[in-house]
Amino acid sequence: MSFPFAIKTDDVSKLYHLGERAQYGKTFRETIVDSLNRVNPFSRLRSSGSANGHADLWALNGVSFEIRPGEVVGVIGRNGAGKSTLLKILSRITEPTRGRAEIYGRIGSLLEVGTGFHPELSGRENIYLNGSILGMTRREIESKFDEIVAFAELERFIDTPVKRYSSGMYVRLAFAVAAHLEPEILLVDEVLAVGDAAFQKKCIGKMSDVAKHGRTILFVSHNTAALLNLCDRGLLLDKGKLVEDGAIEPVIQKYLKGLRTATPWDLTSYDDRQGRGKVRFTRVRFEDGSGNTVEHGISGEPLVVVLDYESVDDRPLPNCRVSVVFFDGLGQALFNCVSELVIHDPITLPPSGTIRCIVPRLPLSQNQYVLTLFLDVNREIEDWIHNAIELNVVDGDFYGTGRLYPEGWRGKGVLVPHSWTVESK
Predict the structure, then answer these.
(1) Cα 216 to Cα 84, 101, 207, 235, distances in angstroms
(2) How much of the chain is helix, strand and coil, in % rounded to 5?
(3) Distances (CA, A) of 133 to 9, 62, 68, 178, 305
(4) Which of 57, 161, 231, 342 could form a disulfide with 74 if both were Cys (CB 3.0 to 4.6 A apart)?
(5) Could you tell me the residue ranges of all domains in the chain?
(6) Binning pLDDT at 50, 70 and 90, where does residue 258 land?
(7) Distance between CA atoms of residues 122 and 112, nearest Å
(8) Which CATH number, 3.90.870.10, 3.40.50.1000, 3.40.50.2300, 2.70.50.60, labels domain 273-394?
(9) Could you give the CA distance from residue 169 to residue 177 in angstroms, rounded to a whole number?
(10) pLDDT tens for residues 295-335?
């Protein structure tokens, strides 16, 4: 029997009472206080809310959507937006406070390191245990066993209790089990970030293969490149609410736009920074080759990174070094523009001003990138801002041929000037 949807949620909400502890038995003092609270309304009012350290948090609030069989959907949002809570409700790990979630199909989930594994059992035994939980027969599990072990690269440790596994080994086995035991629905949380880069790439490839066989995937990630390559649709959560549901690219664009501070490119209130702080970047923006402020870069066109800064002193700043590092969506550094590599003499900066880093031909293909900013004075780090600003790059005529990257080649990273020759034998 076929169903019109694989997952359907209707007003799904989850309320947590912060500050509460599970009660395993009360002390005599707690019993007396509770009795007084029940008979004295003023005492009850005084002890409620934040005064008692308790507060209500709606991790999810009125989330409704439908996912059809075979859809690959990315779930994105800030930390604390409710993404993991949503997957736990869909996996039946926790129940919603309000609303209803309907699942049609066998679920394989990878939510947290070790979820669904018994630490005292070996890797082999946990594979059979997980398969049984999914409703598979022993013969079905055996037919996939060798493939699971090979994918996880744990042949030597498959009979070792998983409590002795490292977090990376745990994740490798957990993902291999979840992906290979042929669930109709696969739920994957950001837990893949525990693995190394090669394993992450391997997992993305496997999820792509699973999707091609018509299975439904719900993928939670901050890796925008992986979401673009894997998903067709996106759900954007913010403070427990579903604020966007649609094609993956506009959903990611709205998410990235929301990461910016209230004033575009304002860095004065940015917290993720290191250094002494006597000199600080205050603003960052992008310009094109004509000095016009732009919101995105174009492959092959000039890009100027404009940095405003201020010092607490009125004296000139001697022997300065400034750098702008370009990272891809996986957090890998692509290239670093460093002032001392191209300027022979040490830089002396005025107490406050504007620095421009000029990239004459932007060597990046269409994708989202992240810039980190760095400034030191006399080899003392003054300001170091990680992930200071997102840079959206659109395809341009980098090679001067009038041709763009073929469809599906998105996110190849750095573009390199090159030429070709042909010789006859």
Answers:
(1) 18, 16, 10, 15
(2) 30, 35, 35
(3) 23, 30, 24, 11, 54
(4) 231
(5) 7-16+57-258, 273-394
(6) low
(7) 18
(8) 2.70.50.60
(9) 12
(10) 888 888 899 999 999 999 999 999 999 999 998 866 678 99
Q: Do 380 and 374 touch, CB atoms closer than 8 A?
A: no
The amino acid at residue 397 is: D
Closest Cα partner for 84 from 217, 191, 206?
Answer: 191
Other CB atoms within 10 A of residue 52 CB: 11
Sheet of strand 185-188, all strands in order from the earlier edge strand to the far edge: 107-110, 185-188, 216-220, 72-76, 233-238, 241-247
Two tokens, residue 119:
């630490």
The pLDDT assigned to 278 comes to 94
What is the token pair recorded at 209? 């293969």
Question: Which tokens is 301 given?
Answer: 């066109």
pLDDT per position as a tens digit, 1-44? 567 889 999 999 999 887 655 455 555 555 555 665 555 544 44
Q: What are the tokens at 113? A: 């390191």
**Per residue in 95-146, pLDDT tens?**
999 999 999 888 877 776 556 688 899 999 989 988 887 677 888 889 989 9
Q: Which two tokens stand for residue 12?
A: 């799904």
Crossing angle for the helix pair 138-152 and 123-133, to the nearest 10 degrees: 130
Q: Which two tokens stand for residue 316?
A: 């000139």
Mean of all residue pLDDT scores within the chain: 81
Q: Tokens standing for 156? A: 């030597």
> Tokens 């501070």 correspond to what residue?
261
More confident residue, 304 or 394: 304
**Mean of the pLDDT values across residues 32-57?**
53
Per the CB < 8 A criterion, the answer to whether 302 and 319 are in contact is: no
* Strand residue runs (E) in 82-177: 98-103, 107-110
Tally of CB atoms within 10 A around 220: 24
pLDDT at 199: 74
CA 384 to chain centroid, in Å, comes to 22
- The arithmetic mean of pLDDT across residues 225-235, rounded, is 84
**Residue among 389, 395, 369 at smallest CA distance from 298:** 395
Classify domain 7-16+57-258 by CATH number.
Answer: 3.40.50.300
